[in-house]
What does this fold into?
Amino acid sequence: MPELPEIEVLRETLAVRLDGRRPVGTSVRQFALVKTVDPPLEDLVDRAVVGARRHGKHLLLNFEGDLTLAIHLGIGGRLLLDDAMRKPPRSLSLEIEMDDRNALRVVELGTKKRSSVHLLRAALIEDHLRHLGVDALSPDLTVDRLAALLSKDRSQIKGFLEDQRRVAGIGNAYSDEILWEARLAPLRLTTTLEPPDVERLFTAIGTVIERALTHAREDNYLMVARGDERGTFLVHRREGQPCPQCGERIASIHYADNSLQYCPACQVEGRQYADRRLSRLLR
It folds into this structure.
């Protein structure tokens, strides 16, 4: 699933390329994608793009007249800016043709159509994002705030990082990278973290996100109609390969829909988790 770094680079790109551009037409092929009916999508026609924002994994395109197009790309969503005359991919769900003969296209790869688009008036944006926690890239996420969030509820650190209600923008991939960077066991409970652990976790969030932003600026897979081919991870998707830090083989826990990767030596004191959900450490 797309996470903060790729969405942020998408925002940077569109903020420049769409600035001042005006839609000349809209077309919806996957009607379940658009979750709002008032105002209708056609109200975007002839309203200039005046900015692009982001909170967590949610992209917000601002238009004249206090309208905002809120886009969440779900699992297989991609956002293309193509020549409007180019034949769109079969997976096209939404197209907004612009006045420069380009088209903003939402495509959804795979069978799980979980992307969403809302057209909202400015007054409703805050309510639309109310369920989200502090953005992982925001200066409002301080060590003290992170410590308070961690101590609030008893949960596994991996799940905490992926919970958008606590810290918005981190998902399965970058939570693996962050926990490896911080040398923390993914199933360790948040309430057991000591101040040095919280400091390392806080630093790792910034380090991993900044590293990912650099890679995404070189090749953002969200802007092409292909799968997630990111090959820049140090631990995630590297099961069986040597840890870049110590050389131990990366291990995994597999779930029904995804998996997590970790280094037994760097994160779990040389032990391994049994490969089943909510497992205990093998002795």
Observations:
- The chain has a mean pLDDT of 92.
- The domain at 4-128 is CATH 3.20.190.10 (N-terminal domain of MutM-like DNA repair proteins).
- The first strand starts at residue 23 and ends at 28.
